Amino acid sequence: MKRKQILLNAVTTLIQVIGSAATLFFLYRFLIGAIGVQRLGIWSLVLATTSVVTLANQGFATSVVKFVAKYAALGRAEDLSVLVQTAIISVGLTLAVLSFALYPGAIWILKVVVPPAHVNEALVILPYAFVSLWANVVGGILLAALTGCELIARKNYILLTSSVLYLFLCFVLVPAHGLLGLAYAQTAQTGICFAFTWIALHPAIPQLPFFPHRWDRAFFREMFSYGATFQSITVSQALREPVTKALLTKFGGLALTGFYDMASRWVFTFREGVVQANLVLVPTVSSLKERDPRSISNVYRESYRLIFFLAIPTFSFLVVVSPLVSQIWLGHYEPIFVGFVALLGIAWLVNVLSNPAYVVDLGAGNLRWVFIGCAVTAILNLGLGFFAGRYFGGTAIVAASAFSLAIGYVVILVSYHVQNNVPFKQLLPRDSVAIVICSVVGALLFLPWLSHAPLKSPFSLRLMSEVAAAMFTMIVAPMWLHPMRKRLLIWVSSLLPA
Question: Where in the chain are the domains?
Fold first, then answer.
């Protein structure tokens, strides 16, 4: 039953990510036509600036996953209610204070970074960005509680519904209100998602009151002691994106920031499709540490094999089809967008391959090398990014950001293998060599062709689609022959009614 629940969580996570990617695809095509890539860059920069307040969330959110899983395994239902209330009150109040304190600083940053002609637009939407981020962060505590209860399927249904709702609200509000309509849509979406999550969590924790009012010092200290180290990890992770976008806007302009945001979201959506399904193992590892610590090494080995099987072809495909995505989103081939996708695709692939080690470290509470790796990423991103932007321009900033991200997560992956005496030969599973060869050869063959075949007619679009389909077929062939494919089919079929 436990294995079936884990599989259901993973499958619904994959469906949620694919659905969110589809809505994102249509959303960007719509927004570029409705408000233009420069205003999209403004919105992206404002969100990146205000996202600093999310630093108050991640440490507690991860603690909630770990300790909700722990107390649920021990059957302490009343403690679950108090634990979640303590986390909501702590994060909600801290976040409100931080938002008011950082608001003047956010205004100053936008005035420094944004071109004068667009400053007023950025300042008008700033309050909505803070409100939506507050609802999103506090709602993240409730989503973490669902994850800790291993009710990840419910969380996925909520996230998918909220993505579709956001797309609908943008279609309605943006034509009438422009950039401000985008702010209205996101604020409404986060508030509705918060309400849905609260309703979904209550059956799992019936003792949870409608209005949180119980705060426990012992639970706060327990979560804080675990979350403090992870909070420092979160700081380094959360600062990477705002720093990169600020440097891009300063040295490259708003249009370049808009292209980066599109490329980043395109790649990150695929990354989430692979990673989020694996993150369902965090509460499982936390529970295994209490009951059967020896089996954790098996969890790492099998999850890495699965991640490798999925990640290599996925990232090769998303890079190859980026010219086609550029044609559809922008209406023309944009080499800057395609280049950004290639750079970020390589970096996030390294991140994805390190995720099994990251997940096991999180579930087991071994966060030292995770912190070191993320700190390396943050330091290199700022230092190399500033140097690259000042002397080489915007594209060099993205290259520096990608390089920093890859190096930091190589540190996490290597340290896990060294600390746990895991052979490095496991990093390239023998049965996946054919997948690697076909993915690399396919990328080298088809990406140059698509990049030099600009869309001039419906026939050209059809031809590009056929080339993308050929690349997909080339990748799928070795995946079909892989033993992991059969195992996945057996696991999925076990979810179907008899």
Answer: 1-227, 252-492
